[in-house]
């Protein structure tokens, strides 16, 4: 072994636990480890003993609860340490690659992350192709077998020829010849180039080729020495036997730290052996019971802390470094790699493409075709006693026989007020009125008895019933002629009682309004024909042209601003959260951070990618809304576009927040869905804020899309601009939300390790 007296990695008193309270799991328990520079260090141990945790603390992806780690002369994560960064090559246990990239693009991605030029990467690719027997370079990673993917993952860790290689089970699933080639290569680079390698493997015997073996169990190193020393000391033929002996003397692992069966680092000796059963229980997947049941007391096999390690740990030792590309070049490389990767990934993912391009068009299309139209095809019951008195069953029959119902002016004198007296004949006004009702909205079904018509409404088959009395025409006309001279019961005889089914508020209200509007039109026509002032028949209230909006406002136009904003907000949230959690679950996020990408750079690349995609989504949605469905906008279109864009960016920040708060896509979906309903219900999209209680209104005003919805409505329907507080407040609150969410993400990312 050519250690040169310097430790590339030095771990002292490392403690790490997962969970808290009664569920706490101590994974590293005052662990010491020394990895000499220019050597291969084989870290061996049963599944779940903490190897990956130790390695992730070494590369700076997790923070120790106690103790210290020194890597290449610095503390991981400290400025200037170069760790994480290009000095390390890290191959995690999971494949941690992008399925949508080809093998060549994958290696380019990692090469760019490490600040390499395309030529340098090309040379390394040719070399690695031979060394690792890589699959065809133009093949997509997702189409490779598990073993091929692992080889590409290994190549990605080697592409920049790092000083320190940290390999978490690199040889799993590879054929023995390739495994040997890899070990030969590791031996060569440690010997000739003075590189350092830490490798974990489940093939214990292949670790014989390492210079140092660390045997790990229950969060501690049972031994740390060269394979030859270990085999000699325990008189064993295999490392597996050595491990079995050491484990058997450490005892069961499920006991607390105070348990006498645990290793005592300070004393340097172990108590008498524990039972063989406990050994089997605790380490079933690695241990092979040899049946000899060692009971000797064994010294804890650890290398003494050498001088260089001690000085490194004290912080005074200056580790030899090699130049890394300047920060600006690294930044450019990182951003280039992250952007190319993100765009290629999305453009090659059919589902994502559909989500980006078809969803907004579909959603806006569905909204405007489904919402705001007048109901059609309703049934309206009619009981017309004056028609039956004339022995007819419906108005069509009357018209066929006598011509159009209504009023006809026959000339003559006028009274003092100018009203025609006796010279305007009226006939079958019930039918004249019924002809004013919109036949597309409701078709009329005639009944002889009111009870029968009501029964049909009670069964839910008709929207309501209109009843005309036997002398309706006479009494309605009498109102015109005699006005206040009529007795109240005589006035009633000229009235049309109506029974409505109001269980469906929208249908009932729209039908009611339609009947009233029809009556106004009928009355106006009736009076005009009789040369009377049509206003006499109207209520003495006149609505002039509205100050803002249309005379008959469409519900879809009212809801459109809120719908477009919440849609863009949640589409962006969903896409951002899904992409980020998927990357994290695949291990790509961690791997990129170990390569030196900072959380800020990663967020910046995501902001650019998601911003472009969100821009496309927002553009499509706005085109659908204004050009296809012709939603009116009297304000400045630039303000509309900016507000939609800012809301989308806030949705993206919420997506970041969801992704750092949730571990899985499923829990992210729950969180997004859980926030979707309160936001859409309270943002004034469905019901105006003025209709809510004061407390609820204040809560609603704090939500990210409420004030922006009001602002957008003010721009579109009132034509107000950014100078009005009612408009800029929406921009302001949405921007504040974005800032708060992104700050929370950075805090979570900083402290959750
Ligand atoms: N993020 C986490 N939260 C809670 N527990 C965890 C977490 N990561 C790992 N563990 C637990 O910590 C223990 C050690 O895990 P670790 O992955 O370090 O083991 P390992 O030795 O690498 O195992 P293997 O050889 O199977 O990869 C395991 O019991 C595991 O379940």
UniProtKB/TrEMBL annotation:
Its record classes its membrane topology as: Multi-pass membrane protein
ABC transmembrane type-2 domain location: 504-752
Tell me the InterPro entries matching this sequence.
Answer: AAA+_ATPase (IPR003593), ABC2_TM (IPR013525), ABC2_TM_bact-type (IPR047817), ABC_transporter-like_ATP-bd (IPR003439), ABC_transporter-like_CS (IPR017871), P-loop_NTPase (IPR027417)
**Might you report a single GO cellular component term?**
membrane
Q: Where is this protein found?
A: Membrane
Q: Which GO-annotated molecular functions does the record name?
A: ABC-type transporter activity; ATP binding; ATP hydrolysis activity
The entry's protein name is ABC transporter G family member 20
Name the Pfam families for this protein: ABC2_membrane_3, ABC_tran
Signal peptide (residue range) = none
Query: Can you tell me where the transmembrane regions are?
Result: 350-371, 555-582, 603-628, 640-658, 670-689, 695-715, 727-749
The record, for Gene3D superfamilies, names: P-loop containing nucleotide triphosphate hydrolases
Query: Any idea where the ABC transporter domain is?
Result: 9-243
Sorted alphabetically, which keywords does the UniProt record give? ATP-binding, Membrane, Nucleotide-binding, Transmembrane, Transmembrane helix
